[in-house]
From TrEMBL:
GO molecular function: oxidoreductase activity
A Pfam family reported for this protein in Swiss-Prot or TrEMBL: Aldo_ket_red
Domain NADP-dependent oxidoreductase: 17-315
Protein name: Aldo/keto reductase
PANTHER family cross-referenced by the UniProt entry: HYPERKINETIC, ISOFORM M (PTHR43150:SF2)
Keywords: NADP, Oxidoreductase
Family membership noted in the UniProt record: Belongs to the shaker potassium channel beta subunit family.
The organism's place on the tree of life at top rank: Bacteria
InterPro entries: AKR (IPR020471), K_chnl_volt-dep_bsu_KCNAB-rel (IPR005399), NAD(P)_OxRdtase_dom_sf (IPR036812), NADP_OxRdtase_dom (IPR023210)
Bilayer-spanning residue ranges: none
Amino acid sequence: MEHRHLGHSGLMISEVTYGNWLTHGELVDGDRATACVRAALDAGITTFDTADVYAQGAAEELLGTALAGERRSALVIASKVCLPTGSGPNDRGLSRKHIVESCEASLRRLRTDYLDLYQAHRFDETTPLEETLIAFDDLVRQGKVLYLGVSEWTAPQIDAALTLVKDLGLRSRIVSNQPQYNMLWRVIEPEIVPLCLREGIGQLAFQPLAQGVLSGKYRPGQEPPAGSRATAGGRAPTFIGRVLGTPLLERVQDLVPLAADHGMSAAQLAIAWVLAQPGVSSVVAGATRPEQVTENAAAAGRPLDEAARKKVDEVLGDLVDRDPAKTAQMMAVKPAWRTA
C-alpha cells in the first residue's frame, strides 16, 4: 500500500481509504464488518472514513469496535457532520451546537479521543459560515480534531471558506475535499480541482466504482448477480439503480479487456484511474466482503499511463458527466449515463 500527503498538509494517508457508507450497519454487521476492517489492515490500509449519519451512528460504532486494540497513532480516522442525525431542529446542519455535540458523539462511538480528519458533510446555507468555521477551529484547538475538510461543496463555497479562515485569523485550514469522483462523474474537474490544486486541498474521492457498476459485474441484459448491492437490502439498491442502464453496462464491458491488458480487474482499473488524476490524495472504497477489500487495495501503486486514460475516454465518450453545476446535487440530478 502506497501513502500520499493529504493535499499540502503533513498528514500521510493510504492511497485506498476504507469507507463504510451503505455497508456497516446496513449491509454488513458484527463479525463480517470486523472481517472487512481486518482485511483492510492486512492490506496496509491505514485510513478509515465514516460519518455520524451512516446508519444513524451504527457505522461509526461498528468501525470503532473493529479498530479497538489497534495502535491509534498508526490509524487515520475521518468522520463527517452536517446531515440529519435525528428529528430535532438542531440535529442537523453546521451550527456550533450540532458540530460540537456531533463530534462528541462520534468520538464515543469510534472509541477514540480525537478524529484525524473532520469534514463538513455538506454546505449549510442556514448557518453563518463564520459560526461553522470558528466551531471547527475550536475543536482543533481543543485537540479533538487534527485536520479539517469539506464534502460536496462547490468551488465558490470552498473559496469563501478559505477567505474567511484568513480574515478571521483561524489556526486551522481546510486540507481535504471529499467529492464523488469516478470515470463517469467528473463534475469536479472544471472548477473544484483547479481551486484545490492552487490552495493545497487534497481530494478524497468516493464512489470510484460508481456503486459497483464500473467493476463490470453488472452485465447488459442480465439480472444483477446475487449478493450484489443491487439486490441487497437497505438503501444500496436505490443508489445503484440511478446508474444502471444498458448503454453504460455495454461500454463498461468494453473496459474489461483494457484492464486485463494492464494486469488488473475492471474494479482495479477504475480505482487506478481515479488515483492517476491531479490532486487526488486517496480513493474511498467500501466493501461487503473481505475479498473485495483486498482487491480494491491492490489497485494502489498501479500507475495508469496516458494511453490507457485516453482509451477510457474513448470508450465512455458522451456518458461522462462534467457539468460543474451538479456538484453537491448528485442526489437530485440524473447523470448523463442514466437511461430514462
